[in-house]
Amino acid sequence: MSSERIITVRALTRVEGEGALHVRLDGDEVEDVRLSIYEAPRFFEAFLRERSIEDVPDLTARICGICPVAYQMSSVHALEAALGITITPTIRRLRRLMYCGEWIESHSLHVFLLHAADFFGCASGIELARQFPQQVNDGLQIKQAGNALLEVLGGRAIHPVNVRIGGFHRLPAAGELTALLPKLREARSAAIAAADWIAEFEFPACEFECEWVALTHPDEYPMNAGLIGSTRFPAIEVDEFEDHFEETQVHHSTALHATRRERQTPYLLGPLSRLNLNRDRLRKPAREIAQRLLPQRVIHNRFLSIAARLVEIVHCLDEAIESIQDYRAEGEASCRYAARSGRGCAATEAPRGTLYHAYEISDDGRVRRAKIVPPTSQNQRQIETDLAHFLPAVLDQPDDQIALSCEKLIRSYDPCISCSTHFLKLTMERR
Amino acid sequence: MNTHSRITAVLGLGSPHGDDQFGWSVVDALTHCRRALPSIHVRLVKLRHPIDVISWINDQTQVHLIDAAVGCPIDQVLRLRCKVPTEWRTIECLPAKGTHDLSLGTVLGTAESLDKPIESVTLWLGPAQQCSPIQLMSARTAEAVDACARKLEQTIRGAGPLADPNSHLTPQSVPPSARAGAVTRAEDFDGEMPDSRIDLER
């Protein structure tokens, strides 16, 4: 005889966006896990059509309040590929510096105010701040350093406006950047010190093998250039992305799911993917922290993502300091170009993983077609798969504890649901 | 503490979506009348995420924080002072669409846990009826922008009610259920708050 049991979490907190998780159980068997994103589609790809390509970086920055730089970077790199533009080394380095700002800002918020609370049974950052005021203050200080970088390079911290096709509207004065050095150095010290704190965390067992996908680059920790690497398959050029990965519509979500095209298998993006594929390209202080906090093999424990984010914060702060020390405001702020028809694509590493953009443009410099594949929608299928593997180990717990455990696992991916199409509700059916 | 050395930060919280533009629009309006404001000690800042308010809460800064409020009476702007705990604690979190669900209430609570001087924060809440993506503000919210900017300008210049040290809100005058999130909610208000409400001119 079947008996049905329903567990509902009305609000999964500390994730970006709105959605719901439905779990159906038959006894101890997990029958179905569905991560439903019910945020209305925002049709960005449609309303980019026929817009001037010059509008694209500022429009795509509006897709996400958390990672606008990623959207700007993927869009300008894709459009530059379509137009045959090669940016100068100065512009390339400044773009990496801007990306450092976004990773620092986004990761520090997640590590110190959103995710760490889960390891101490704190319901919110308010409780965590009472228990660990020093660490939370350090996290806020690190975040401020990231914000400051974005303000100088992007013109403002929210929805930066300084990025354009071919470079920037304006190069920052050297003094504007060097003024940030004390703040960045303090933030680096705070981030390195935080490794002692995270080393004491107790990480739940959550070792599920999967395919990890991220950009890889022979000379640098990847941000906005490289091949698309995988822990299971050979690396591919970015312009082969649509040959190997596809998006499909599913009934229960307004965000598209992404899988490997041939095998229909899920994959996972994000900081753990980047580390799994690029650990040897970390800068020394970050590599040392990775060595201390993370296993020396492919990392599969999803909860270790908090340590991976800290490693990336240290890497970015180190790179930012060096880039600013080396910076000379020389050369043109942007490369000149003439509009022409063409097609171009690019993938860059948003804080949550690989973000793919492709554009077709017309002779008069208008967008004919736009395709945007955000990281959270790519991760959705693997998150569902992980939950199905994770649930049997917690099924003996009371329903509210099961729901809490699922929330914690989902938070470890730092999902940005608003990017993928926006709060999660969990419904569990037991038969 | 020498209050003359303090700066005043006017922080507009918002997004490009419908009435959630209220906070940003008040900052824009004040920017346009900047010459009327004390030039050195006033910072006008737009913020997207409530968490970024926290770095402004310190002993050197008087913070005026402006946000849209679902449930705020449509013909009024509400003013709540954080130095009166019963006021800001009545702000309740809505399911937020903001930075990873860190609502304004959570941010103020975190600031308090960190012993930051949240008594230096004054909340100015304007009415929000719709926050649809990339939509214009409602006509009533746009009117509230003007009213809020005018009152804030007077306040900053020392002519407004905040300049009066005897002017404060009594706990009884606080809306019983003002709720704040990424988009603040302030509903069920039926109390008399002569100092805390700015009626819009008709």
TrEMBL record, chain A:
Binding site for Mg(2+): 45, 372, 422
Binding site for Fe cation: 67, 419
InterPro entries: Ni-dep_hyd_lsu, Ni-dep_hyd_lsu_Ni_BS, NiFe-Hase_large
Protein keywords: Iron, Magnesium, Metal-binding, Nickel, Oxidoreductase
Positions annotated to bind Ni(2+): 64, 67, 416
PANTHER family in alphabetical order: COENZYME F420 HYDROGENASE, SUBUNIT ALPHA (PTHR43600), F420-NON-REDUCING HYDROGENASE VHU SUBUNIT A (PTHR43600:SF2)
Cofactor(s) this protein cannot do without: Fe cation; Ni(2+)
Gene Ontology MF term list: ferredoxin hydrogenase activity; nickel cation binding
Leader peptide range in chain numbering: none
Species per Swiss-Prot/TrEMBL record: Roseiconus nitratireducens
Keyword Oxidoreductase: yes
Annotated protein name in UniProt: Ni/Fe hydrogenase subunit alpha
Similarity section: Belongs to the [NiFe]/[NiFeSe] hydrogenase large subunit family.
UniProtKB/TrEMBL annotation, chain B:
InterPro entries recorded: Pept_HybD-like_dom_sf
Taxonomy, superkingdom: Bacteria
Annotated region (Disordered), positions in chain: 159-202
Protein name, as recorded: Hydrogenase maturation protease
